[in-house]
Amino acid sequence: MKKLIVLLSIIPAIGSLTVINRVEPYILGLPFIIFWSAAWLVITSICLYISSVICERMEGK
């Protein structure tokens, strides 16, 4: 389960950079690619935290 969550959070972050490599449009004052990278940094951190909580609960049982 933990590996699946990690893969689901990392693959879109890395694999889509070649598809969305453009400066326009601007989101929150940032070029789209920088906003995309920053958003996936946050999303990946959240997914890893969730997987950590799930694994700790499974080990506690």
- Structural class of the helix and strand makeup? mainly alpha
Following the backbone from N to C, one meets helices and strands in this order, namely: HEEH
The total count of strands amounts to: 2
Strand content: 5-15%
Can you characterise this structure?
There is one protein chain. The chain is mainly α. Helices cover 70% and strands 7% of the residues. It has 2 helices and 2 strands. The protein has helices at 2-15, 32-60; strands spanning 26-27, 30-31. Strands 1-2 form a two-stranded antiparallel sheet. Strand 1 (26-27) and strand 2 (30-31) form a beta hairpin. Helix 1 (2-15) packs antiparallel against helix 2. The longest helix is centred in the last third of the chain and has 29 residues, at 32-60. The protein is elongated, with a radius of gyration of 15 Å.
Question: Topology of this structure?
Answer:
Layout: H1 2-15, E1 26-27, E2 30-31, H2 32-60
Helix pairs in contact: 1-2
Summarize this entry quickly.
The chain has 61 residues and is mostly helical. It has helices at residues 2-15, 32-60; strands at 26-27, 30-31. The protein has a two-stranded antiparallel sheet with strand order 1-2.
List keywords for this structure.
elongated, two-stranded antiparallel sheet, 61 residues, 2 helices, mainly alpha
